[in-house]
Amino acid sequence: MKIIKFFAGAFAVLISLLIILSIAGYLLLYDSFSDFKADFQFAKRHLRLELFNRGYLEDLSQDDIRYVYQSKCYRRCHGEAAMITAVLSPAGWFQVVERMRVKENVEISGWEVDVIIRYLEQVYPTTKSRFSYEVRKKVHSAVWRNDLGHGDIYTDVIYVTPEYLHSIGAEHLIDEYNLENFHVFITSFSVHDGEVEMFDLDKVAYMKVSNGEVPSTPPWELRFQTADKHHFESIVRFSKQNDSLDTGKGSKKFEFFIKNVGEVDKRVFEWLLPLDYPAEVSALER
């Protein structure tokens, strides 16, 4: 019995010595305690982020949120100037982050997308909305379509509805865009390298609900073009006076499409009807 206790004690001492030696050896790799502290903080932060990702933490600290943004976006792809001078459509940072994730293949997980968008909206606000991020995200999903960059040109299309404008705090645009008499689309064209040549959207933009192809109602409107000509954004309208453009109860879907842009014969964007809005926004139009 004494022999067993002896070996058990010796084994415990040996394990303790190995742990101490391992820690000592680990610390010898560092030039200073501050280096060790930095690595410890790094490991601790990533543990918190992993716990948040798996649903064990409900919220991140502002420092953690800033870290996610900086590690994925700031200086890795863009500097501060790009954020401050960004001219955004009503889709705002949703559209920008999603483009980077889908077209430019930036490695951003679903939860990181949400964290980054929240951070950008807080630090570089573009609109003032009374609705939560979750509500605005659902409305955006209902009206936004894209083509994943066919022909090296990435196209974003927003079907502009009163619900959408309410959700982003831009109700004043309902009258400005004359939504009572027109179907309106915010259409954006982007390239990561090179330039997007300006073209006449009234010659290439069409809408279809039930019968044939109906061209847009002139004139289309340029909202802005970036100085490097990587991007331009436009407004395209279709008169609701045309019977074939009825998007009422009898229609199950409608299409907006663009012909012969970026060596692509036709870019088609489809919406199923009725559009699926969250209850908070749908109630505004009742």
Characterise this structure.
The chain has 286 residues and is of the alpha+beta class. The protein folds into 2 domains: 60-126; 133-285, Immunoglobulin-like (Sandwich). Helix content is 40%, strand content 20%. It has helices spanning 2-28, 33-53, 62-72, 80-84, 92-102, 110-123, 133-143, 162-167, 173-176, 279-282; strands spanning 144-146, 154-160, 182-190, 205-208, 214-215, 221-225, 231-239, 253-261, 264-272. The protein has a 5-stranded antiparallel sheet. It has a 4-stranded antiparallel sheet with strand order 5-4-8-9, with no helix packed on it. Strand 1 and strand 2 (154-160) form a beta hairpin. Helix 5 runs antiparallel to helix 6. It is elongated and about 95 Å long.
Q: What series of H and E elements makes up the topology?
A: HHHHHHHEEHHEEEEEEEH
The major β-sheet equals: 5 strands, antiparallel
How many β-strand runs? 9
Any idea of the CATH class of the largest domain?
A: Mainly Beta
Q: Assess the beta-strand content as a share of residues.
A: 15-25%
Low-confidence parts? none
| Rg from Cα | 27 Å
Instruction: Write down the CATH topology of the largest domain.
Output: Immunoglobulin-like
Distance between the termini: 84 Å
Structural class: alpha+beta
CATH architecture of the largest domain, please?
A: Sandwich
What gross morphology would you assign? Answer: elongated
Number of distinct helices: 10
Kindly report the average pLDDT value: 79
Work out the helicity level: 25-40%
